[in-house]
Amino acid sequence: MTPPVLVLSGPLTRDEVSGPCEALRELLESGGGGFGGVVVCDVGGLGPPGLAAVNLLARLQLTARRAGGRIRLRDPSPALCALLDLVGLRFETEGQPEQREPPLGVQEAVESGDPVV
Questions:
Q1: 12, 56, 69, 115: least buried by Cβ within 10 Å?
Q2: Low-confidence spans in the chain with pLDDT less than 50
Q3: Phi/psi at 63 (5° precision)
């Protein structure tokens, strides 16, 4: 099973945040709890990133936290990721390894001269 998905589309204006926040709240109340409180936000259709997108995602993140959940971004553009990084917002994205975990398929090799620990 997969977590619920909230599809976001653009272009956005600063004032268009209440609808998606309410939709996120409803998803968390109805089914997000069964997935660790995670709702996936599909941001592929947001269009060119801007401050309206940053504002929306920050408010969605706050809404999710207040409801005891969290959001995960699906299909963010590299420009959106760079903009979010620039303003200091960190989001979990699909396909990324969790923090402090090596990416799948990476194995540590042992050198023949390494001491046993």
A1: 115
A2: 99-101
A3: -60, -45
CA angle (3, 33, 57) in 5-degree steps: 65
pLDDT, residue 100, reads: 47
Task: Look at strands 5-9 and 70-74 and give their pairing.
Answer: unpaired
- For residues 41 and 72, what is the distance between their CA atoms, to the nearest angstrom? 6
For residue 77, the model assigns a pLDDT of 93
Q: Which CATH superfamily is domain 5-93 in?
A: STAS domain (3.30.750.24)
pLDDT digits (tens, 9 = 90+) for 82-107: 999 999 999 999 876 554 445 555 55
* Structure tokens belonging to residue 99: 């923090």
Rg value, the chain, Cα: 17
